[in-house]
Amino acid sequence: MKVVLLNGSPRKEGNIFTALNEMKKVFDAQSIEAEIVEVGSKMLTGCHACGACGKLGKCVIDDGANEIIEKMKEADAIVLGSPVYYASVNGTFKGFLDRAFYVAGGELKFKVGASVVCCRRGGASATFDELNKYFFISNMIVAGSTYWNSVHGGAPGECVKDEEGLQTMRNLANSISYILKLKEKAEIQEPEVERGAFTNFIR
Ligand SMILES: Cc1cc2nc3c(=O)[nH]c(=O)nc-3n(C[C@H](O)[C@H](O)[C@H](O)COP(=O)(O)O)c2cc1C
Q1: Within 13 Å, how many C-alpha atoms sit on residue 184's CB side?
Q2: In this predicted structure, what is the pLDDT of residue 202?
Q3: Is the pLDDT reported for residue 203 higher than 90?
Q4: Does the Cβ of 36 fall within 6 Å of ligand 1?
């Protein structure tokens, strides 16, 4: 079992890192492999809408995104962590997620997904909703916790003072690990996914 936790903040050891690391400690204690992967600190562009990924199975832009996308494909659970910027997902991270899910969304079905956000004051639940949309359109199983998964803080690491926020992170990690264990035990096949219909909303 492997969990990848994507840090969408440009601050490598900021509050999102602190929140993801709180989750990693839970996975470590249960011997579940967990890796925090830097995304927001990289120079990544957004989707160019060239459609080449449909044929290549990877993004044509060679800026490091494909390596992270491969980690997502190999993982059993994916955690998306973003700081709140103007009540929304960090721009670099959003650009990456558009590309990653366009390339690999079809291969992520029935993996476990969870979102984590951090803000100083406002915009957490709007950003949380944005991140979860990537999971729901990809037929993933979304894990919950004891609040909408957010921590609060401004300066790097300040969210350690947000006791309920960190508790929410620990409960979220335990939910993910429980779902992963249930899946491992399940003796049933994943359902077939029907494809083919692709009707634009133009009428
Ligand atoms: C460009 C920018 C926009 C921000 N917008 C918001 C916002 O809309 N609401 C808020 O509460 N905090 C906002 N913040 C503060 C960050 O969300 C906050 O500092 C958070 O701790 C950053 O997480 P990090 O330490 O993982 O980078 C903003 C920060 C930046 C740099």
Answers
A1: 11
A2: 77
A3: no
A4: no
Ligand 1 centroid vs 160 CA: distance in angstroms?
16
* Matching residue, tokens 């990809």: 138
CA-to-CA distance for 137 and 52, rounded, in angstroms? 20
- Atom 8 of ligand 1, residue of closest alpha carbon: 86
Q: What is the pTM of this model?
A: 0.98
CATH number of 2-185: 3.40.50.360
Q: Give SS3 for 141.
A: strand
Average the pLDDT over 25-53 and give the result: 98
State the average pLDDT over residues 24-41: 98
Identify the residue whose C-alpha is closest to ligand 1 atom 19. Answer: 154
DSSP string, 60-99: S--SSHHHHHHHHHH-SEEEEEEEEETTEE-HHHHHHHHH
Question: What are the two backbone dihedrals, phi and then psi, of residue 164, each rounded to the nearest 5 degrees?
Answer: -70, -35
Nearest Cα residue to 3 out of 129, 172, 189, 137: 172
